[in-house]
Amino acid sequence: MSDSQLSHYECGHCAATAGMDELIATCPACGGPLLARYDLQGARADRIPAPGRGIWRWSGLLPVPEAGRIELGTGDTPLLPTTIGAWLGTGATWIKDEAANPTASFKARGMAVAIGRARALGARSLVVPSAGNAACAAAAYAAAAGLPLTVFMPADVPDSFRIEARAYAARVELVDGLIDECGRRAQAMAERDGSFNLATFREPGRVEGKKTMGFEIAEQMGWRLPEVLIYPTGGGTGIVALWKAFEELEALGLIGPERPRLVMVQAETCAPLVRAFEAGNTQAEPWENGATVADGLRVPKSFGDRLVLGALRRSRGRAVTVSDGQMLEYARIMASKTGIFPCPEGAACLAAQVKLAREGWIGPEDRVVLFNTGSALKYLHLWPNSTHPD
Ligand SMILES: *Cc1c(COP(=O)(O)O)cnc(C)c1O
Ligand SMILES: [Zn+2]
Questions:
Q1: From atom 4 of ligand 1, which residue's Cα is the shortest distance away?
Q2: In whole angstroms, what is the distance from residue 362 CA to residue 369 CA?
Q3: Which of 129, 190, 219, 349 is most exposed, with minimal Cβ within 10 Å?
């Protein structure tokens, strides 16, 4: 495994820079989200990706020194060919199955990097607001890192997430309110006792971890990116991360300037980024009383909205909404046609592909990759009870 080629951090809003030796979280000048920047010349000389398995094959392009690399088997999830393209009349369609990660979701990638970095730079305790999978992933990596973690979760999150997070010995605080209220509580705790806040876009590690999905897809497709990527979007960390991954791969000479069109999918009942995209805005207003069965999409306000909307526009992408009913319907269709049992967020990608294929926006020449971002097994409460067959 190679050394990290991290050189500094740069603010995604005001372009101010910050050094890499301290456990810095947000921009010291304006408070905006920080992006990691690398010595790509140095990285070119290294062997990237290194041999082996998992996200640390890309450690030259991750902000984690060797001492922080927690090994739970993160990344190198399968990119599965399907027959979806044939029945929709689009090009070939693959599913990047992120349920194969530790804690059964792609949140593992971001937390592996964020917590690895925090540990290496001296964090003594951690805090995170989460509506589901992020809590489980943070709790698992915190346990592996030997760091205490507090999770602020809305009181109505499904039992599966709360039970799993507690099993890893996280302190789970149930909050009467939405994820934004949990975010305020986490921030207050960080200010009060110095716990490192892992909230998305409030520290630079989670984007870097999710970036490895883009690296893997490029590699798995023989360095020929698909024409369309469909991504279920809550705060949009993954949209920013995928775009950044491709920029870095191009700088390394591994891919050319071609880029996929990115499709952002949100729930009809909580779609602040889609609304902003459609209105031509560069920032998103908070969505009032956002609710959806897809816990990963229940994000009424993204701290990274400007970066997400910018990446989507540069990719000449689209933003679409799907209803909770469609997510459940397409979960069943995806499971029965592919053998992959998706979380509702993953099913939302298929619903969006159907919509855009009918419109002709995705055509027969367009190779498509969908993300199944987590396992359906944490959402069994959404399915008819098996003891009462329907
Ligand atoms: C968090 C989450 C998402 C949304 O990811 P972002 O990159 O934060 O937008 C999608 N699906 C699942 C299963 C999630 O847990
Ligand atoms: Zn700034």
A1: 234
A2: 12
A3: 219
Residue ranges of domains in the chain, CATH in brackets:
79-104+207-382 (3.40.50.1100)
pLDDT of residue 14: 97
Phi/psi of residue 128, nearest 5 degrees: -150, 140
Residue in the structure block whose two tokens are 């951090």 = 9
Nearest ligand atom owner, CA of 12: 2
For residue range 364-387, list pLDDT tens digits in order. 999 999 999 999 999 999 998 756
Question: Can you say how many angstroms the Cα of residue 105 is from the centroid of all Cα atoms in its chain?
Answer: 9
Residue nearest to ligand 1 atom 1, measured at CA: 296
Rounded to an integer, what is the distance from CA 32 to the centroid of its chain? Answer: 19
Residue 105 CA, ligand 1 centroid: distance in Å: 9
pTM recorded for the entire structure? 0.97
Q: Name the pLDDT band for 43 (thresholds 50, 70, 90).
A: confident
Residue nearest to atom 10 of ligand 1 (CA): 296
**CA-CA distance, 141 to 102, in Å (whole number)?**
9
Question: pLDDT tens, 214-247?
Answer: 999 999 999 999 999 999 999 999 999 999 999 9
What are φ and ψ of residue 13, in 5° steps? -100, -55
pLDDT digits (tens, 9 = 90+) for 189-223: 999 999 999 999 999 999 999 999 999 999 999 99
Mutate to test the pocket of ligand 1, among 202, 305, 345 (most ligand atoms within 8 A of CB): 345
Query: Within 13 A of 46's CA, how many CA atoms are on the CB side?
Result: 21
Q: Which of 380, 382, 378, 385 is nearest to 165 (CA)?
A: 378
User: Could you tell me the CA-to-CA distances from 284 to 123, 142, 232, 248, 384 in Å, in that order?
Assistant: 32, 32, 17, 27, 36
Residue with CA at minimum distance from ligand 1 atom 3: 296
Q: Cα of 238 to ligand 2 centre, how many Å?
A: 21
Can you give the pLDDT at residue 1?
A: 55
Across the chain, what does the average pLDDT equal? Answer: 96
